[in-house]
C-alpha cells in the first residue's frame, strides 16, 4: 500500500468512529450521562495529543513563531466558520438534546453536515501528516481522534434522531464525514510531503488551533451539562491516558 493510501486508510479509521457512535446511538438507548462522560474523556485525550504530539512537533520542526501564528490562525478560522454555521442551525450539532429540526430551520440539515465536516477535517489532516516522518502513524493522535469521534457520533446521532432526522440522513452524514476524513488525511500527506518544515509546522498548528477551539466550543460544554463537577476529573483521566500511550509508543 502506498503511503498516500495508508494515510487515507488511517483517516478513514478515525472517521469510522463517528459511524460506529451513530450506529450505537441509533439502535441502543445510551444514557446521556455515559455519552457525556465519554465525551469528557475524549476531550482530555485530544488535549493531550495537541500538547505532546501536534504543537510540540510543530515547534520542534518549524520553530515557535510559525507554530504560534498557525495555532492562532486555526483558532480564528474555526471560530468564524463555526459562528457562520451556527447562524444556519448547526450550533447544537454535537448535542443529544435540542437540535433544530428541518421544519424549525430549513438549512439546518446542510449546516449540521458542514459543521461535522468542519470538526473532522483538521484531525484527519494531522493524522495524514503524522506519517511524513516515515515512522508510521502517530498512535497517540489516532487513539485521540477515534476516542473523541465515538462520543461525537453518539451524541449528535441521538440529537438528530430526536429532531426527527431519518436514518438515511444520519448515516449519510457520518458516512460522508468518514469518507471525507480519509480524503483529508491522504490530501494532508500528499500536499505536505514536499513542504518545508516551517510550512508543515504552520499547517499542523492551524489544525491544532482549530481542534482546541472546537473542544472548548462544543465538546466540553456538552459534557459539562451532564457530568458537571466530574467533567474535569474525567478529562484529566483522558489526558493522562493519552500521555501514557504517547510515551509508551515512542
Number-wise, the strands total 0
Uncertain spans: 100-109
Distance between the termini: 24 Å
The major sheet is characterized as: none
Detailed description of the structure:
- With 250 residues, this protein is an all-alpha fold.
- It has eight helices and no strands.
- It has helices at residues 3-27, 32-62, 64-90, 108-129, 139-162, 167-192, 197-227, 231-249.
- Helix 2 runs antiparallel to helix 5 (139-162) and helix 2 packs across helix 8.
- It is globular.
- It starts with a helix and ends with a helix.
- Residues 100-109 have low confidence and may be disordered.
What is the topology?
Layout: H1 3-27, H2 32-62, H3 64-90, H4 108-129, H5 139-162, H6 167-192, H7 197-227, H8 231-249
Helix pairs in contact: 1-4, 1-5, 1-6, 2-3, 2-5, 2-7, 2-8, 3-4, 3-7, 4-5, 4-6, 4-7, 5-8
Looking at this protein, list some descriptive labels:
single chain; 250 residues; mainly alpha
